[in-house]
Write a sequence for this structure.
């Protein structure tokens, strides 16, 4: 019997060839919905987590473009929330349209999702995730920061860029809401862009922080919280590969935690792209009876049937 699954959608599920207009991204979301709805028809209950890299980058650019007392720049946590709203809107509209085209009684809805991170996470003293605009020089970057305590790093010969911490997700604040919606049969979109990072303070409750959370790690936390049957990470390649980029490259098929850990130790997976997917997958399958899948967006159903993709069993 198919059960609850968490589907993590990568950049290719929302953008093609970097076309960033709302219209272009909605077209891609429509295509993504067409690829996901067969899973619902097959009986799976879907919870969707999506990335937001290019989208939140553009929102930050808009926010930085005007900063006056009347129209102040919003902080990064608010920008992540804005990206959840926009992308969630595109996905839920695409899903609802596809449900009605197929005369299904399903519903889909987005939850603005806060994700608790540890204020002492080592990531806060080592920001790594580049966001927003490229500057020619560090001086130019400093001027743009206008006194704000930003960290800038040189990004692969392309210029100077702001980097922000990428702390590990610990807990989904809206977990109860998400579970209630699942119980009501809703296809839930949650944890978008990895979630709005918040820390728990003694005096002020939840407080947003200037950081971004990796959406693959958040997908694993969501999947654990709802005790999903499978974590399905859908991306632009057929699965995790060994010898990636070499003539000897091959997609890893059915495997186990020990074998994947060995490949991690051999540095087979690039940090910032495939490595977090594999780490998230391994974290999820720490508990017995679970599986994690890394596959291409178009092959989700086949991957769930065990025919393609990287399938890690606990
Ligand atoms: P997403 O937007 O889905 O999170 P990413 O670009 O972050 O996608 O990560 C997926 C990409 O990781 C692949 O498209 C591929 O270019 C890259 N990659 C790096 N190492 C590997 C590997 N060992 N096997 C497969 N893909 C890899
Ligand atoms: Mg990624």
């Amino acid at each position: 019997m198919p059960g609850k699954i968490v589907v993590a959608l990568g950049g290719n599920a929302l953008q093609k060839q970097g076309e960033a207009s709302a219209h272009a991204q909605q077209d891609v979301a429509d295509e993504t919905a067409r690829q996901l709805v067969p899973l619902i028809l097959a009986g799976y209950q879907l919870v969707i987590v999506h990335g937001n890299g290019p989208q939140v980058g553009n929102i930050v650019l808009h926010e930085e473009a005007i900063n006056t007392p009347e129209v102040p720049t919003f902080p990064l946590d608010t920008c992540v929330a804005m990206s959840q709203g926009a992308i969630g809107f595109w996905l839920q509209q695409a899903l609802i349209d596809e449900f009605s085209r197929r005369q299904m009684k399903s519903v889909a809805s987005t939850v603005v999702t806060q994700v608790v991170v540890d204020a002492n996470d080592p990531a806060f003293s080592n920001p790594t995730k580049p966001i927003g605009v490229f500057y020619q020089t560090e001086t130019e970057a400093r001027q743009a920061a206008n006194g704000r305590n930003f960290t800038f790093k040189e990004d692969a010969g392309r210029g100077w860029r702001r980097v922000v911490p990428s702390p590990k997700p610990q807990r989904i604040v809206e977990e109860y809401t998400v579970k209630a919606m699942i119980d009501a049969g809703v296809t839930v979109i949650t944890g978008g862009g990895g979630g709005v990072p918040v820390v728990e303070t003694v005096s002020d409750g939840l407080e947003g922080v200037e950081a971004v959370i990796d959406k693959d790690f958040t997908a694993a936390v969501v999947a654990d919280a709802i005790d999903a049957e499978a974590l399905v990470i859908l991306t632009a390649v057929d699965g995790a590969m060994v010898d990636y980029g070499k003539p000897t490259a091959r997609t890893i098929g059915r495997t186990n935690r020990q074998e994947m850990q060995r490949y991690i130790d051999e540095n087979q997976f690039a940090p910032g792209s495939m490595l977090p997917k594999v780490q998230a997958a391994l974290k999820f399958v720490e508990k017995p009876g679970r599986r994690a899948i890394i596959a291409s967006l178009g092959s989700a159903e086949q991957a769930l049937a065990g025919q393609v993709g990287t399938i890690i069993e606990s």
